[in-house]
Amino acid sequence: MKKIEAIIRKTKFEEVKEALLEADIEWFSYYDVRGVGKARQGRIYRGVVYDTSYIERTLISIVVRDKNVEKTVQAIIKAAQTGEIGDGRIFVIPVEDSIRIRTGERGDIALYNAEQEK
After folding, report:
1. Which Pfam family, an example, fits this chain (predicted)?
2. How confident is the model at residue 7 (pLDDT cuts 50, 70, 90)?
3. 12, exposed or middle or buried, with CB in 10 Å at 0-12, 13-18, 19+?
4. Fewer CB atoms < 10 Å away: N or C end of the chain?
5. Are 79 and 15 in contact (CB under 8 A)?
6. 88 burial class (0-12, 13-18, 19+ CB within 10 angstroms)?
7. 66: exposed, middle or buried (C-beta count within 10 Å: 0-12, 13-18, 19+)?
8. Residue 43 confidence (pLDDT)
9. Which contiguous run of DSSP H or E holds residue 49?
10. Is the dihedral of CA 106, 111, 115, 117 positive or negative?
11. What digits encode the pLDDT tens for the residues 72-113?
């Protein structure tokens, strides 16, 4: 099992969500986050200069079976990529165990309903 964390542009969240659903990833968590990047510039909006060094992003967190890692990563890249600085990052982290609280099932079977297995 792997945990995939993706930090993406807030404006790309809906596209990434749809891409994940198309890739049969039906459950994930997401959080609004802020970060500090290398790009330092002021943007002017209606005569007011705004500091853009604090970047608002969305963090998506997903735990998937090993066989679903690559299709999940590719779905995120395809939906989130603009080709510009600030598209974000994806991290793939090993997960030691997963436990379904309701049934006590352990391992990757605890991630999904066995009767829905394809």
Report:
1. P-II
2. very high
3. buried
4. C
5. yes
6. buried
7. exposed
8. 66
9. strand 48-51
10. negative
11. 999 999 999 999 888 899 999 999 999 999 999 999 899 876
